[in-house]
Amino acid sequence: MARFVHGEQSEITTDYINQRDASARSSGQDRRVTAAVPGRKLYRLVAVSFGLLCVLQAALNISLRLYSKTADIGVCCTNLTCELKRELFNFDHYFQQGWVYFHPSFYYISSNKKSWQESRADCLQRGADLVIINSKEEQDFTRKFHKLTWIGLTDRETKGTWKWVDGTPLNKSYWKPGEPNDFEGKNEDCVEIRFHDLENSWNDIPCGDQNFWICEKRIAL
């Protein structure tokens, strides 16, 4: 009986030890599995985080480029707005001073008479100069005022070489037939618009004579 019990106890003990070994092995495997699982999760988390950082960096780069372009457009629009305001101010200023606009310039027609040199000095003081006629349209425009008016043409520097006040030589002229002629031997070195009913309305007279005058101020649009 004792041997039976001993044998039974031995079997129980053996079974217990085997169970402990199995349990220990199982626990060790579980620990390894448990230890491995967080490692893989951490790796995935790092990979996902890195991917998100790349996406955020790309989005930031795009945003900066768009902002830069928007800023440039804003500056451009601001400059254009300022320029437009400046030109509108100029228009209002010249209109109030009695100037007349004919593209691309403003024109001031005097209400009193002066010599050619004095007339030019007045134009310069106004930020302009005596009118330079560059086209048939401008020639027709200047004839409409029906005044004897100085224009910015002279041969004071070199007799017979007509130049505009900006130094450019005369290319297209609108002399009345027979002009210029230094009438009666006078030094007629300056030019007026005299014959308003004719397209060719220019006449040379002495620069010291008294005339109305036309100032011209170009406005860039």
From TrEMBL:
Tagged with keyword Nucleotide-binding: no
Spans traversing the lipid bilayer: 42-60
GO molecular function, one term: carbohydrate binding
Keywords: Disulfide bond, Lectin, Membrane, Transmembrane, Transmembrane helix
InterPro entries from the UniProt entry: C-type_lectin-like, C-type_lectin-like/link_sf, C-type_lectin/snaclec_domain, C-type_lectin_CS, CD209-like_CTLD, CTDL_fold
SUPFAM superfamilies: C-type lectin-like
Protein name: C-type lectin domain-containing protein
Species this protein is from: Perca fluviatilis (European perch)
